[in-house]
Amino acid sequence: MTKSGSEGMAGEGAGVSMRKNPQDTATAGSSGTLQVVEFLLGKEYFAIDLFDVKEVVEYTTITKLPNTPAFIKGIIDLRGEITTIVDLKQRMRITEESVQPEENCRIIVLDEKNTKSKIGIMVDDVLSVSTFEMKNVDTKSASEIGDEMSILGIIKKSVRDKETNELIIWIDIKQLLKDIDQHM
User: Fold this and answer.
1) Given 98, 120, 148, 149, which is the most exposed site by the fewest CB atoms within 10 A?
2) Which domains does the chain have, with CATH numbers?
């Protein structure tokens, strides 16, 4: 999906809430399904749990902070609240260049229940909210990679008109950002 395809999700200049009522939707433990927010980092597909996401907002000017690691892009004023922005590509050491300018990136604001402070992650594009059957998630390969990578599994997404699957890396955003407050 291109930038124009995600505009329907994020809207012009507005944030779109990603929160859903857990009673209305199935979770990975209850019915064998997994709900995620899919996004791009470079040319690779990634996903995080839907319930870790508060909303998706368009890129806004980021104020850089001195003496912070390179993966902390800075802070933004999001409706009157200071939110720390983490460049997920730098945090995950992905060196591949973005296919679009930084101003076209999206910010996924994380649910504060899962983080100690207001945090947003900058990604190249947000593609969709998707539901997958757990039978299409390979968690064994992820466990062989190691915990320090924060990979929960590899999602095999069927692609229409193709005989192969698209692979989506399902990451544990809580694990990946657990030490963020130490860097501030």
Assistant:
1) 148
2) 3-183 (2.40.50.180)
